[in-house]
Amino acid sequence: MEEETEEELRTRTERKVKKAAQLLLFRRHRTPGVKGWELKKALGDNYMKVIGVLNSTLDRFGMEVKRISEGGGTGIDEGEGKEKTERDRFMIVLKNHLIEKASGARIDDVAMLSATLAYIISKQGKAPRKAVEDFLSAKFPKRRVYFALDRYLKQGYLGEDDKVLYIGWRTRAEVDRKTLLDLILAS
């Protein structure tokens, strides 16, 4: 077996980084990002090293690859098992939220999501769905509230167990909860 030259290794790594960027930047499913097993299948067993190289490249653009455990937590520890890493979702997010119009959502939808998240956070991370609906119905039309909550559940911003809403995996990835609360308290 021939030894791989440094140039060949660099070229192969560069191809893998480009492929990882394509997988993560372009949406193929309803939910953004890619599961770890998909990255492993496309990039090989050392996909975490490829993600590290991609992360250093994205840093120049103010973005980063974030690894989110859909069950809870951020899943950043390197010491976790490979099975857990393969179930986690990887997605590219902005490091600093300087671009206010990056989401493409209507301002009242953003306000409703912000109010929902603030309410759930104020209730130690879980709140009955009925209580959230009543809270939002004081400011928004009821039919919009029901549709919005269902949309947030589908998009992963919220999770629901037995009519109890909690912070979803996508909120943990995209929303800086401390800044959100600081902005709400400052107004």
Provide structural commentary.
- The chain has 187 residues and is of the alpha+beta class.
- The protein folds into 2 domains: 89 residues, Aspartate Aminotransferase, domain 1 (Alpha-Beta Complex); 80 residues, Arc Repressor Mutant, subunit A (Orthogonal Bundle), CATH 1.10.10.
- 55% of the residues lie in helices and 13% in strands.
- The strands form 2 sheets. It has a 3-stranded antiparallel beta sheet with strand order 1-3-2. A 3-stranded antiparallel beta sheet has the order 4-6-5.
- A hairpin with a 2-residue loop joins strand 5 and strand 6.
Strand content: 5-15%
Biggest sheet details: 3 strands, antiparallel
Q: How many strands? A: 6
CATH fold description of the largest domain:
Aspartate Aminotransferase, domain 1
The overall pLDDT average reads 81
Radius of gyration: 19 Å
Structure summarized in a few sentences:
This protein is α+β, with helices and mostly antiparallel strands and 187 residues long. The protein has helices at residues 6-25, 36-43, 47-59, 82-87, 107-122, 129-137, 142-155, 169-174, 177-186, and strands spanning 34-35, 63-68, 89-94, 126-128, 158-161, 164-167.
Describe the SSE topology.
Layout: H1 6-25, E1 34-35, H2 36-43, H3 47-59, E2 63-68, H4 82-87, E3 89-94, H5 107-122, E4 126-128, H6 129-137, H7 142-155, E5 158-161, E6 164-167, H8 169-174, H9 177-186
Antiparallel strand pairs: 1-3, 2-3, 4-6, 5-6
Helix pairs in contact: 1-3, 5-9
